[in-house]
Amino acid sequence: MADKSHFENQKVINEEEEKRIEHYSSYHQILLVGEGDFSFSHSFGNASNIVASSLRSYDEVIKMYKNGQSNLEKLKSLGGSILHGVDATKMQRHCDLRTRNFDRIIYNFPHAGFYGSEDNNHLIQMHRNLVESFFGSAKRMLPVDGQIHVTHKTTPPYDLWDLVGLASKHSLFCIECAEFKIENYPGHNNKRGAGSKCDEPFHLGECSTFKFILSYIQETFGREDVDVEFSVRQAIQRGALMFIAETGRPSEDYLKVLDELHFWSRSRILGLKQKLQDLDQRVFEQQRMGYYL
Ligand SMILES: C[S@@+](CC[C@H](N)C(=O)[O-])C[C@H]1O[C@@H](n2cnc3c(N)ncnc32)[C@H](O)[C@@H]1O
Q: What is the pLDDT of residue 88?
């Protein structure tokens, strides 16, 4: 049972004034992946709820980016946690991350490196592999109402990466595609992040933040190794959170939605049963007429 001090601490947390910047709240536990010069989190003011990570080591970051060292120091002074050597494709196994969940996992401008023209099919496939593996790793670190955000260019050839299709392979569904404007994140400098011009910005053009959630129902029925009861419970819980957030109606009303869902599920099952019976009947009649010998 939780003691009194637990509730008092909880009260202090809840009474802390929420700060928001675009899609993010100071109440969210946030993981930033694939950071360049570690400037994105500066827009947040207090960063005690943020873990910012890079693939590159500390030494590489301060060598690659002229503001790397000062940005890291500033981030630390804002209370942020910093991790280096985090591979976005297998971060769920990282020793500092494997026991943690994050409400928002953010990868801004994923990119596998500069190896020629961006419309080269082989290079596009490299970028796609990176993003797909990132999805596969990040989804293991989400709580029930967590979201994965990827900010990406939406014009050709970047649209060919098909983020939404890649995400769906991991039962992740795009719930929103919000226009990204860098001026909404004061202090953030987008970086190429690789090659001799790694510290230079790249042209942004039209970009969006793609937001994904995990469908536990699809996870459940797509895989054999998942505890079905647990996953369905999580799906129902997620539905309740979305229902309350989107409609503003009380949680009791969600029971009506579940009742309706139950009604439609039963109708669907009855419909499918009827179809199976019809099929059996047809096969039986064709056998009788000698079609299957
Ligand atoms: C175009 S840069 C974007 C940097 C930064 N997110 C920004 O918005 O300025 C692409 C970033 O992806 C990182 N990256 C590439 N492969 C990665 C991987 N497997 N795991 C984590 N980061 C990776 C690079 O180190 C680089 O920082």
A: 98
Regarding whether 203 and 128 lie in a shared domain, the answer is yes
Is residue 73 domain-resident? yes
Strands in the chain per DSSP E: 20-21, 24-25, 30-33, 50-54, 81-84, 104-108, 147-153, 172-179, 207-214
Say yes or no: CB of residue 130 within 6 Å of ligand 1. yes
Query: What range does the domain containing 186 cover?
Result: 20-214
DSSP state of 40: G
- Pick the more confident residue, 7 or 49: 49
Q: Which of 89, 105, 130 to probe ligand 1 with, by most ligand atoms within 8 A of CB?
A: 130
Residue among 209, 192, 210 nearest 201 (CA): 192
pLDDT above 80 for 87: yes
* Model pLDDT, residue 261: 86
Q: How far apart are the CA of 165 and the centre of ligand 1, in A?
A: 21
Mean pLDDT, rounded, for 75-91: 96
Name the domain count of the chain.
2
With cut-offs at 50, 70 and 90, classify the pLDDT of residue 223.
low
Task: Tell me which DSSP letter residue 180 carries.
Answer: P
Based on the fold, state whether residues 273 and 166 are members of the same structural domain: no
What phi and psi, each to the nearest 5 degrees, are found at residue 32? -100, 130
